């Protein structure tokens, strides 16, 4: 559950909050409200209606950008690319450097979600250059953070560390908290555990008004606790992270880690109850990579521990997962010591890429 993201691609926020203000119609405002509640299908319907009524090219570009992100949340990759192509076509006729940088960011996010990490890095480098020409430190830091995440996903942790140490994120608490999270992840991967933990701990007060970021930092700290054999402390952190998490993906991930620790400490009755809750959440989740991985992991654990799970098989069938894939993939989803965020994988329904970050040593 510690996925390759997100959690973090903070690209999601900039389409709506960063750069010059573009007048939004009531339909756009309503769509954004549904998007923030993770009701992506309704948000898409409203943005499509807004697109039909939009006249200024800048407004059309912004709507195509929002639609491209929403389609990615639902694993609709072709539709996302179509909206990005439409956005770029409008930009070719109506140049706007801010909107161009945002379109590049969303295109890179799509490549990341499809496992094309090197392509994503190249596009984020282009967006960084756009922001440099605009003298926009927020945009520069955002592009660099996303490049570092792709480097981490490829296992190029030393390069990610060098890049992260250059980033100036002091102007924004979300960026600074994310920077500390990513540095903590990178230092763990490089084996610098004594340095990594303070980075994460100092990130918590910075993220005090950002509950989802707090949840992700707590997940990484729980990772340290589990590695050190402090299983109850780790479990308590995951419970706290669950209460803070705002996205369905992060909430499911928190519960999966709780489930893993309950099994590890042989509290099977509580684990059985939690399994039922997880199945209910996953039945409502989009058919994306993270929900597939969660279903695979739960199915494997239920079989291993002989837990009752009548909903697991229908859940796997609904996501077209074979029993062979279940056994092959389950161990990649949640293993002791594996990095929370590096597993928070891109929201895709395609097979995982061939390159996987290794589990850090647990001793």
Task: Give structural notes.
The chain is mainly alpha-helical. It has a domain at 230-346. The chain contains 18 helices and two strands. It has helices at 11-17, 26-36, 40-53, 57-73, 77-93, 97-113, 117-133, 137-153, 157-166, 173-189, 193-206, 211-227, 231-244, 248-264, 268-283, 289-304, 312-318, 323-333, and strands at 3-4, 342-343. A two-stranded antiparallel ribbon has the order 1-2. α8 packs parallel to α10 and α12 (211-227) runs antiparallel to α13 (231-244). The longest helix is centred in the first third of the chain and has 17 residues, at 57-73. The chain is globular and about 60 Å long. 49% of the residues are buried.
Quick overview:
The chain has 363 residues and is mainly α. The chain has a domain at 230-346.
Helix content: over 70%
Taking all residues together, what is the mean pLDDT? 81
Oligomer: single chain
* Secondary-structure class: mainly alpha
Major beta-sheet overview: 2 strands, antiparallel
Spatial extent as radius of gyration: 20 Å
Number of strands: 2
Spell out the helices and strands N to C. Answer: EHHHHHHHHHHHHHHHHHHE
Unreliable runs:
1-14, 322-363
Distance between the termini: 21 Å
Q: Helical element count? A: 18
Task: Name the overall outline.
Answer: globular
Q: How much beta, percentage-wise?
A: under 5%
Strand order of the largest sheet: 1-2
